[in-house]
Amino acid sequence: MVNYIWAALAIIGIVFAAINGTMDEVNKAIFSGAKEAVTICIGLISVLVFWLGMMKIAEQAGLLRKLTNLFRPIVAKLFPEVPKNHPAMGYILSNMIANIFGLGNAATPLGIKAMEELKRLNGGKNTASNSMITFLALNTSCITLIPTTVIAIRMNYHSASPTDIVGPTIIATIFSCIGGILIDRYFYHKRMRKG
Amino acid sequence: MEIISLISLWMIPSLIGFILLYGTFKKVPTYESFVEGGKEGIQIAFSIIPYLVGMLVSISIFRASGALEYFMSFLKPVLDFIGVPSEVAPLAIIRPISGNAALGMTSDLISTYGPDSFIGRLASVIQGSTDTTLYVLTVYFGAVGIKKMGDALKVGLLADLVGFIAAIVVVTLMFGK
């Protein structure tokens, strides 16, 4: 889908410029857009290097594992079909913690592992189980503590206070997390009633 | 609201202090671990260059041609009515589809309107608080060969909508217009 949107933006723009007589602006925009993108990525290096470095320390100190155990009893309630000490539970929790700390790249392999285990629990069927749907709802709506990349972009553009969006982001994700869980429960019970 | 600003200010330094303290206490070679983890950061930053170049060029063409302005003039009355700046509407549409594409749009909004403008802040919070639901679903279900996604897409997209609305409400309350 992103392919269509991406191509459409450029095609519509070029056709529009032909009608509108703004081809000159479009010409400039092509190169300034590309240049800007690279500048942003260079700016991202500082924050990404720093943050992933800090997270490595947290991981090796066992901090992430500790947090995992802390959340276990709460999260276990959302997955009645997963036995408490099943490896799936461990992967689900570590995936969540990685997501909360903005470690998208660390989260993905853990999430795929969790899905493999959940599929095994579901007898290897190729349909989504209740636990899988709950897991994905949690995964996509869960709380974000530090929106690292956004802070980096704000710094790039000389924000007076690049981190002043951290608080609002945490609050917005708390709402989306609660919303995600409630919506998931609603569909869960709907499926259960159908049998 | 003052408490939230305070949390924003203290969150990162206290987290860093805590991680370093805890790591030292647990006898982790902090500096060496930091360097090891930091190397991954360079890789990530470079790997998103093509995503951003592609998206920013496309958006730039769309905007410079005057097409964006033209299409936005249709949406504006509806969005104005519910208090959503029409400038962030494209971001809300692309956010669940591609994270890096959305990152391109967010940077574009921040550079056009300024990081500390209402729109700049709103785009920041939307980018930070919602997720690429379609991408996550494709990758996770695809990796383990699930063909029937059930309610997963519906649940994920509705949760995104909640996040989007929450972002608008929180930013409007905190930073006003």
UniProtKB/TrEMBL annotation, chain A:
Residues in Nucleoside transporter/FeoB GTPase Gate domain copies: 42-151
The entry's keywords: Membrane, Transmembrane, Transmembrane helix
Protein origin, superkingdom: Bacteria
Cited InterPro entries: Gate_dom
Presence of keyword Transmembrane: yes
TM stretches of this protein: 6-26, 38-58, 88-112, 133-153, 165-188
Name of protein: Nucleoside recognition domain-containing protein
Automatic annotation (TrEMBL), chain B:
Transmembrane segments: 7-24, 44-62, 155-175
Annotated keywords: Membrane, Transmembrane, Transmembrane helix
Record domain Nucleoside transporter/FeoB GTPase Gate: where: 46-147
Highest taxon of source: Bacteria
Protein name (Swiss-Prot/TrEMBL): Spore maturation protein
Native organism: Niallia hominis
